[in-house]
Amino acid sequence: MNKVEVIRVGDLAPGEMQKVEIDGRALCIAHVEGHGFRAIDDRCTHEDESLSEGWICGDSVECPAHSSRFSFLTGEVTGVPAWVPIKVYDVHVEGEVVFVDLDSAEARAAC
Ligand code: FES
Questions:
Q1: Is the shortest distance between the CB of 77 and ligand 1 below 6 Å?
Q2: Tens digits of residue pLDDT in 9-61
Q3: How far apart are CA 92 and CA 8, in angstroms?
Q4: Rounded Cα gap, residues 58 and 38, in angstroms
């Protein structure tokens, strides 16, 4: 486990997201209505656009470049043209602090 602090709970209202650069990675941290705080890689698997510049649509994020969508819950592509899933990270909220386990996406991919 490589748990790192990314934001404070009050930094994102439901429906908001932001890019966080940490430990050499760019993450998209989102407060997804009905699903709490979620973390995925920020770079779209289609052509590297920043997903945090896009929009939250239900439990997915829509890329601002060509409208691909990825599930915040599973990382699966929910809208083309992308076809490669996005990495999803485990999120832990402790008090007012939101943490991401940077090792969790690799662990999940190895399963
Ligand atoms: S860069 Fe994201 S859909 Fe093309």
A1: no
A2: 999 999 999 999 998 999 999 999 999 999 999 999 999 999 999 999 999 99
A3: 11
A4: 13
Measure CA 97 to chain center: 17
Beta bridge partners of 26: 21
Residue 2 CA to ligand 1 centre (angstroms): 29
3-110 topology per CATH: Rieske Iron-sulfur Protein (2.102.10)
Q: What atom of ligand 1 comes closest to residue 44's alpha carbon?
A: 2
- Give the number of the atom of ligand 1 that is nearest the alpha carbon of residue 54: 2
28 in contact with ligand 1, CB cutoff 6 A: no
Q: Where are the domains of the chain?
A: 3-110
What are the C-alpha distances in Å from 28 to residues 34, 55, 111? Answer: 18, 11, 23
Residue 111 has pLDDT above 60, yes or no: no
The pLDDT value recorded for residue 110 is 60
